[in-house]
Specification:
Elements (H helix, E strand, L loop, with lengths): L16 H20 L4 H8 L5 H26 L1 H20 L4 H29 L2 H31 L5 H4 L1 H15 L13 H20 L9 H23 L7 H4 L2 H21 L2 H9 L3 H29 L1 H22 L5 H28 L3 H36 L6 H26 L26
Helix pairs in contact: 1-5, 1-6, 1-8, 3-4, 3-5, 3-9, 3-17, 4-5, 4-8, 5-17, 6-14, 9-10, 9-17, 12-16, 12-17, 12-18, 13-14, 13-18, 14-15, 14-16, 15-16, 15-18, 16-17, 17-18
């Protein structure tokens, strides 16, 4: 099932070109949002207050994205991809407008949840549609087109965020999404056509609620511990204990649910389990640098937001460059070897970032961030495509959603843990206005990033071996999922 389009060529001028163009724009929405906000954080804090609350701007967005991805993924396998991605674009548009008019930090945090709910559909559905209408070999080429959006966003996002911040109109970073959403939605409505689905479905809202409660409790405890209350206190016990119990209950409910939002039978496959864990680590690595490095450079060196944003943009420039070329590599040496090269590179870069942390320098950060981006680009694409290619059409949405969920959850938990480290150092220092305290807090964050990279590399070693030119075959015995669009 899927879109009935000609499969003779790959590119924007082919029969599938208009669909690819719509998916590129959809990907661009998420890519720009990932790079534009961090550079504006100091300006937002100066306007709305609450420096120690700024990690919430990222964590609630990522949490909403994470918990909604499995629901969208399951729904897409039952009713089709098109309605889900259009719902996501609509929610992202609504959230962007609301954020642009937010009167205070609390409102901005709440409206970021709406944006996150939209992103939870857009990102994984774009990749799922690609998996439906392109073969594994074609996806290696298509990845270059999608990666180009991240390359463009790596320059445009920080530049726009910095310019809006320096002009005192940071709200503009949300309004730029309006025309992009409108154009992406129009292109997909006009050009992407799916077969109609008549299948009955049941959404596991109970599981979704328990997952939300569990992750919210853990993240709340991490971000507010040692800040709003002591680590060893009744509120901390409620957050961590309640969160853990909710996650245990979630696992129990999912095993009995007729249509679980997370299929634990899929996680039982070694390939799916290992790629899911690696994606979790990649999410934490990405957020650790993009969210904290701009504040690190601006707070320690006093450089303008535009320059700090461009320094960090080197990461999101290196990522798509590596991702676009990873297809040639994994078709030659296999998914696991390619991902191992990438994650090893990320480990080296993150260690260098931690070592140089006490001596802030924008050029040093930019160089290291670029290398880290290369490592993440060589890791993320092979991991995702290996998982996608190991299943058929009926499970591909769930597998893509699980991968995206893991990355979003990793980012949400990662920003909470790293934010807790930063807040603890700042609380014991001279405050967020002291450059030396910012340097110490950021160095602690970068050490956490390095540890995360090393653990993720270790998890990658459990990924099954595959042979060069596998074309998507897995060692789990699952059939390779062709990208049939008929």
């Amino acid at each position: 099932m899927g879109s009935s389009v000609d499969r003779s060529a790959v590119g924007l001028r082919s029969e599938r070109g208009p669909i690819l163009g719509g998916l590129m724009l959809s990907t661009g929405l998420i890519a720009i949002d990932a790079t534009i906000l961090a550079t504006a954080v100091p300006s937002i804090v100066r306007d709305l207050g609450g420096y120690q609350q700024f990690p919430w701007l990222f964590s609630v967005y990522l949490l909403a994205q994470a918990v909604s991805v499995p629901i969208y993924a399951k729904s897409a396998d039952m009713i089709g991809r098109k309605p889900i991605i259009l719902i996501g674009i609509g929610l992202f548009l609504l959230g962007s407008v609301l954020c642009g008019f937010a009167p205070g930090m609390l409102w901005l945090i709440l409206f970021r949840i709406v944006q996150g709910l939209g992103a939870g559909a857009v990102g994984p559905m774009a990749m799922t549609i690609v998996g439906d209408i392109y073969t594994v070999a074609e996806r290696a080429k298509v990845q270059g087109y999608l990666s180009s959006m991240w390359a463009i966003a790596s320059v445009v996002g920080p530049a726009l965020g910095g310019i809006f911040s320096q002009l005192g109109i940071w709200r503009g970073i949300f309004f730029v999404n309006v025309p992009l959403c409108a154009l992406a939605g129009w292109m997909l409505i006009r050009n992407y056509h799916e077969d109609k689905y008549e299948q009955r479905h049941r959404i596991d809202f109970g599981g979704a609620a328990l997952l939300t409660l569990g992750l919210t409790g853990i993240i709340l405890g991490l971000l507010e511990g040692d800040s709003a209350w002591a680590w060893i206190s009744v509120p901390s016990a409620i957050c961590f204990g309640g969160g853990a119990l909710a996650l245990v209950a979630f696992a129990a409910v999912e095993r009995r649910a007729s249509e679980p939002i997370i299929d634990f039978s899929l996680i039982g496959r070694r390939l799916i389990l290992s790629t899911t864990v690696v994606s979790f680590g990649i999410g934490a690595l990405l957020i650790g640098v993009t969210s904290f490095a701009p504040a690190y450079l601006e707070g320690s060196l006093g450089i303008p937001p535009l320059l700090s944003g461009l320094a960090v943009a080197a990461l999101t420039l290196g990522w798509p460059l590596a991702s676009a070329n990873s297809g040639t590599l994994y078709l030659r040496i296999g998914f696991r070897r390619t991902a191992t090269i990438g994650m090893s590179t990320a480990v080296v870069a993150s260690i260098l970032l931690a070592v140089t942390g006490p001596w802030p320098n924008a050029f040093t950060v930019a160089g290291i961030a670029f290398v880290l981006g290369l490592g993440l680009g060589w890791s993320s694409a092979p991991v995702l495509i290996a998982a996608q290619a190991s299943v058929g059409w009926g499970e591909r949405g769930a597998v893509t959603g699980m991968n995206t969920f893991a990355r979003s959850a990793g980012s949400a938990v990662g920003v909470a843990i790293l934010g807790a480290i930063s807040n603890a150092v700042i609380a014991r220092g001279a405050g967020p206005d002291d450059p030396a305290t910012i340097v110490s807090a950021s160095t602690g964050v970068f050490i956490g990033v390095a540890i995360t990279a090393a653990v993720t590399l270790g998890a990658l070693m459990f990924m099954p071996r595959d042979y060069a030119g596998a074309g998507g075959a897995s060692t789990d015995g699952a059939p390779a999922g062709g990208a049939s669009a008929s």
